[in-house]
């Protein structure tokens, strides 16, 4: 009797622990994780580490939204017109138009199921051309974004590179980009509680509870 109570308590504690872990994880930003992978790969190839610019990250999320969830448009020649940066992307983010800098590279990928950052990296860097973009010495800064489409797939990842000065390009009025949920972008302290991280955490919680129940039933 005392032993089963102990088991039950241990299972409950384990469930709480796993739930707490997933709560912390939900604050993690997958777009920031992708930037970390990008910089790790660049520095391993003797290219510079790039500044993570929140204004550029926010614009990367706008760039995705311009595709309106149309996965089949990715990889073709169709891409948002250049004037979108100044006409819609910058104003939607609160980025000051005068601080827009040259885009020196862009990577975009899309698939029906959510690819976590490491998988997204492999999707984005899929050939020699994208590897050249990744390792280009033209870049000084980067912004990344990820989002699903109306509460589910397809999921889009976008990385924009720029040669602007990290401190004075893509600067945001008031220092905080306009939030644009759903979706996550890099360089800010956004908890990113959009559809992506919420569903991941929910699954972890369910797993934790099942784990605890399994523990409780094998007494
Ligand atoms: C960088 O990424 C490319 C493409 O995925 C890969 O082939 C290469 O091994 C990576 N380099 C390092 C040092 O991880
Ligand atoms: C770097 O910039 C130069 C000059 O604009 C351009 O010719 C070159 O293709 C760029 N390199 C890459 C890898 O994009
Ligand atoms: C510019 O960026 C550097 C780090 O990259 C930082 O140490 C410095 O304070 C920044 N300057 C301004 C004016 O924000």
UniProtKB/TrEMBL annotation:
<protein>
    <submittedName>
        <fullName>Uncharacterized protein</fullName>
    </submittedName>
</protein>
